[in-house]
Amino acid sequence: GAARKASPIRPVPVEYAFKQSTRQAFYFTNSATIGGDPLEKEDMIIAYNDEVIVGSRYWYGDITDVPAMGADESEIYAGYCTKGDEVSFKIWDDSAGTLLDMVSGGDVEWNSMGISVINLCSSSPCALSNNSFFPVEYSLSRPYPNPFNPTTQIRYDISQYSMVSLKIYDITGGLVTVLFSGYKSPGQYSQIWNGSGYSSGLYFLELNISSENKQIYREIKKILFIQ
């Protein structure tokens, strides 16, 4: 019976079209609002890598999946996403006839075959509820912005109830600060580090996950603080 249902996916106008690639990621939009009001079916979400359109989709309700295409070997995919790029989003507000820049809540880092759940809002803040998505694996996204001054946002995924520590180290390996230490339930989390009061330079962000006193995941990212 489900197979006979009409697909909600409609062709987009040519000015917002994109080339289908064998490398792609999907951003499942948990909610999207303009001035606090939800989108309508004639509104459209457009995904960008810098100024290049890499995906688009008419809004068809909560959990609308927006594709974002990656660069393939062909020159026709010039400017398309590569691993680690940050995808941005705009919305065509059909009732107003305008294209709006959106604030994203959730992990927007592009990875081939990646799946993320995001929220889109026309103004900041745009938070992603920890209960709206349960990741299937642990991960630490690239802090954004990076380099930064004075704050950077750190996003990470927890796939099961675990002991979590999030720490900053200096270039000598010395502990600078503990951003979080304690237990976390499954979900997507966001942490801000404010570098005010610290020296400019290279730092290391460490996410450490343990369960029953055994380390099960560890990842380190470089971050650069510039005053």
Radius of gyration: 19 Å
Low-confidence stretches: 1-5
Q: How many DSSP-defined strands? A: 16
Q: So what's the overall shape?
A: elongated
* Count of DSSP H/I helices: 0
Strand content: over 45%
| Helical coverage, percent range | under 10%
Order of helices and strands: EEEEEEEEEEEEEEEE
Oligomerization status of the protein chains: single chain
What class do helices, strands and sheet pairing give?
Answer: mainly beta
- Could you give a short account of the major beta sheet? 5 strands, mixed
Distance between the termini: 60 Å
* Averaged pLDDT: 87
Structure description:
The N and C termini lie far apart (60 Å). The chain contains no helices and 16 strands. It has 227 residues and is mainly beta.
Question: How would the blueprint of this fold be written?
Answer:
Layout: E1 24-34, E2 37-38, E3 44-49, E4 52-58, E5 64-69, E6 88-93, E7 98-101, E8 103-105, E9 115-121, E10 139-140, E11 151-158, E12 162-170, E13 175-184, E14 187-194, E15 201-211, E16 214-225
Parallel strand pairs: 1-9
Antiparallel strand pairs: 1-2, 1-5, 3-4, 3-6, 6-7, 8-9, 10-11, 11-14, 12-13, 12-15, 15-16
Give the gist of this structure.
By secondary structure, the protein is mostly beta strands. The protein has strands spanning about 25-35, 35-40, 45-50, 50-60, 65-70, 90-95, 100, 105, 115-120, 140, 150-160, 160-170, 175-185, 185-195, 200-210, 215-225. The protein contains no helices and 16 strands.
